[in-house]
Amino acid sequence: MEKIEEMIRHGYECEYLDFKEKQYSKDKHMDLIADIMAMANSRHEGDKFIIIGVKYRPEGKEIKGITFEDFVDSSNYTQVILSNIEPDIQFEYFKYEYEGTLIGVFRIYNTNSKPYMLKRKYNKLNEGLCLIRKGSSNSLAKRSDFDFMYRNKGVFEVKLLEQTLYGVHDLEGCASIDVLLANTTENPITITAGYMNIHNKEGKKLSHHPIFGIDKVIGADFKIGIQPKSEIVGQLFVGFSSSDPLRLDIDEYGVGNKDYRFELLLFDARGNQYATILEQGNVLVNGDFLWKVKKQKGIPHKFRTHKI
Fold first, then answer.
1. Cβ-count burial 2-13 (b if 16+ within 10 Å, e if not)
2. pTM
3. Each residue's pLDDT tens digit, 138-177
4. How far is the C-alpha of 132 from the C-alpha of 110, rounded, in Å?
5. C-beta of residue 186 within 8 angstroms of C-beta of residue 228
6. Residues 254-294: pLDDT tens digits?
């Protein structure tokens, strides 16, 4: 439930999140079918959400809410979706109270049977229609989308295995954290780029750290190959500098007194994106990374490296 509150407060429309001001009335069931289908076909691995009762605008969100009397029972929507889309899409529609206002939430999950298509003509939607969520809009699925769906019947999982980012590799200019990369698809995946963002509790981005390799520091031109049905567990190295402790409010002892939100994003050679989020992380820093913090506090620092 904390994830839903976070999405309402800080989320933006994308391939796994959409906002609607009003519920889908009977005359809007065509839109319901299109939106649920597109979300289910999205390339995002993980749950997708459509949040009802929130008016989304670039300048900010307006919480409209839904009255208890007008809330549509989920069985009504289930009947429409299961009667018109194949294979069956797993989803739920439930009530959520946000700051005293009732909100509706569609959660679309376990979407491993792509592509999802229209099994019969419905209003202006033709039989065989296949829509996919791209960015903040629904699009007709193309040949490349179908190739991706059939090629990636498994998933690529990214998981942070610890809650602490260690900024202790001052000679290399890096911080590290243990990570799991698991490829359950039938095809090899080559990660060619990535970065970690650190946010505060309010969702503000504090620092940005490019990935430099796993188990050894290579640099921005690193490549990580993961064979089908295999996984890698290792030490992920990300760029770190003496300015980052200032941005993260690290004290002169190298300790952060706040819970941070880690966002790790990876990109493969085909341009696909994989992401994971750790809601409560912390940062520990040592060595010459602390010289700017100490200088700001008037504390002398003896350098171990020659980097300033």
1. eebeebbeebee
2. 0.55
3. 999 999 999 888 776 667 889 999 999 999 999 999 999 9
4. 16
5. yes
6. 998 778 999 999 999 988 888 898 988 999 999 999 999 99
**Planar angle of CA 192, 271, 235, nearest 5 degrees:** 30
Q: Are the C-beta atoms of 105 and 96 separated by less than 8 Å?
A: yes
Q: Which positions ≥6 away from 5 have C-beta within 8 Å? A: 98
Which residue in 249, 252, 248 sits closest to 298, CA to CA? 252
CB 275 within 8 A of CB 263: yes
H helices present in the chain, as ranges: 2-10, 29-41, 74-84, 143-151, 244-247, 291-296
Count each helix (H run) and each strand (E run) in the chain, helices first.
Answer: 6, 19
Q: Which two tokens stand for residue 12?
A: 């933006």
Cα–Cα nearest to 80, from 25, 15, 139: 25
List of domains in the chain: 2-151 (3.30.950), 156-296 (2.60.40.10)
* R_g (Cα) of the chain, nearest Å: 23
